Task: inverse folding
């Protein structure tokens, strides 16, 4: 079901309006850890995005992430952001329930909470999403890599995640029974 | 842990700024179904708020509900709204995990989705919160009533809930194993 | 991963040993509500098994259900029972997490709890399992029917479920956000 | 609600009958991580049991754990085992929902799965249980210690847990958002 409706205030916002809004209310995000499952439903690999900073050249890791737009359902936002980050040939299987694996709270100032987003106060619904097909990121992200749970749990790898999102990877793997 | 930080853009917004913001992004809410538990942890009663409309005089039912303010953590928002609706002598026991019972999506136009909020596109994290102590609503709400699960599941009662929230009551009771 | 190990006491038990065991400990089951999802992950249909009683000729409804055998993992038991009830051409996608939608407790005496199993005290881990492919039951069950959520929620349909399992169908649909 | 019923085969089993049963079916357990919460519902301390081996004198750590008896409800089993391990002056608040934090599978042979129980194939429903009052173990366990999340996550501490249960502690803390 699509719940997008004719909208006099479209989801798209000017940079100015978005900046202003970010100072007024927490911004709602959806985030997804893409996974490859074996036939028993156990996670084999996690999809991790490698993003290069245009200014510092530094490489950081992240997961699929994006805003829920005005008038957009959570499921539509998930699908749109999965397609943005994994490309049109990826086939994500959205979870049958909207109950997230965890709720992630990002604050703009470091030290307040484990997750940080310098742009804004954001709250993300975090999902684990099984994906089949070919994944070819078509935006910012330079590369998608598939890591085994134990590769992803390497402390050096976890530290490379933007904004402290290594924590979300650990929470997702705990939820999947794949910490050990 | 409080994660409130010095904030140049306080959570409080002028009516104008809030209206403008409501046209730009989905607004994040927390909602809570207050419950009384027996010693085995099984729900005995649900707290339901009766609110009188100042214009029509009509009585409607609702659950604890309120915005997450800019810079405010989800837990702070839950506690603040529970105190607003249940009064200072209520002792809510916030759930140890922030994973909600359900994620509720409200759209401004009826017929698009089961939940409706004419003011805005809102997304609510819905929790079940055990409460002890005395509950005395101190705002809008006229009265707090405690219903057994079977009283709350009466179709006439469910229909009285604002915005279709009777659905959330059913989802909460299903989660608690108290549908039958 | 299969965790079946060489087992001096195989999962298979003689009728006598099983009866004796049923009088000693609660028996662990897995149960599954098969679902067809749309591309957004929302449930379109539930798979319901129609079983004819060999003695009374009465038709009853049920969901996929079976014991976890000695030495068998929960995932292996789920796959085995899904194949038993849906046939070898069904492709169930086991959930990535073993956290069940609900824990169902069956007691042998009616009136004690909403779920009843005259044979035994049983505890079932209940999952929602997306299924693709063709489903052709190959055992007891006469027929598999696919019902929409609103068809499944018809009180007459719910009453036809064996042992009170209509309650589990309601709980599963509540979890999926498909009660309305 | 207690669902204990007059039972010709009482929950108590002779050692012989229990050994025989352990070779026939997986044995159902409940396990609980006792926690102290702050007023915001965030975990401050975890209760960990220190048990001394009567044969080797070695100290091991564990969590609250025990069988579900024949005819006993999951909630009754949780309360009984919490009282056994925390004493009669502890006031556990059972969770309002029976959905566990994780399902733990123990196999008798090491190397098959992360959790091991040399006595049997066991499946445990694992809960986080807020506890107030005084906790004084009255059985096997020598001592109850309260650890902060970061103390509990020390790899040396996690390694001391019986049967690999350090994994369950990590999963519980991930669920509580207290891994960092």
Result:
């Amino acid at each position: 079901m699509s719940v997008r409706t004719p909208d006099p205030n479209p989801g798209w916002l000017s940079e100015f309006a978005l900046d202003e809004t970010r100072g007024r209310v927490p911004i709602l995000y959806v985030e997804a850890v893409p996974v490859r499952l074996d036939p028993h439903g156990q996670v084999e690999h996690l999809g991790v995005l490698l993003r290069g900073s245009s200014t510092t050249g530094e490489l950081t890791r992240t997961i699929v992430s994006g805003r829920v737009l005005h008038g957009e359902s959570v499921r539509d936002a998930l699908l749109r952001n999965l397609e943005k980050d994994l490309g049109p040939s990826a086939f994500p299987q959205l979870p049958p329930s909207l109950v997230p694996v965890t709720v992630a709270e990002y604050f703009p100032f470091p030290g307040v909470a484990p997750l940080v987003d310098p742009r804004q106060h954001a709250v993300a619904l975090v999902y684990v999403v099984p994906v089949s097909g070919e994944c070819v990121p078509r935006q910012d992200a330079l590369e998608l890599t598939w890591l085994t749970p134990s590769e992803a749990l390497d402390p050096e790898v976890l530290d490379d995640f933007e904004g402290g999102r290594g924590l979300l990877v650990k929470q997702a793997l705990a939820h999947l029974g794949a910490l050990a």
Observations:
- The first helix of chain C runs from residue 15 to 22.
- Chain C has five helices and nine strands.
